[in-house]
Design brief:
This protein is α+β, with helices and mostly antiparallel strands. The protein contains two helices and five strands. It has helices at residues 4-9, 24-35; strands at 19-21, 53-57, 62-67, 70-71, 79-80. The chain is globular.
Length: 85
């Protein structure tokens, strides 16, 4: 899990919007889509690695995976989150 103090410092690398931990339901939905081969990142490449958690951009448009307690804060690795505002 991400340390609370570190979370306060993290922001979207593209827009600088604050990030928050995604809820368990969103992480589960993303992992189900990964398992089914249905999820692509912002660069259009298939996401193949399940995430332990995720950081959600304030506007809800993109999530950044957290794998093995490491947030993947690369613009091209952002995961579009449809159905969120």
């Amino acid at each position: 899990m991400i340390d609370a103090e570190l979370l306060k410092l993290l922001c979207c690398p593209e827009t600088r919007q604050p990030l928050s931990l995604a809820d368990a339901a969103l992480v589960q939905r993303l992992n189900e889509q990964i398992t089914a081969g249905q999820l692509r990142n912002r660069a259009g490449k298939p996401v193949t690695r399940k995430c332990d958690s995720a950081l959600l951009r304030k506007d809800g448009q993109f999530a950044y995976a957290i794998c093995e307690n490491i947030p993947i804060l690369l613009i091209d690795e952002a995961i579009p989150v449809s159905g969120r505002a």
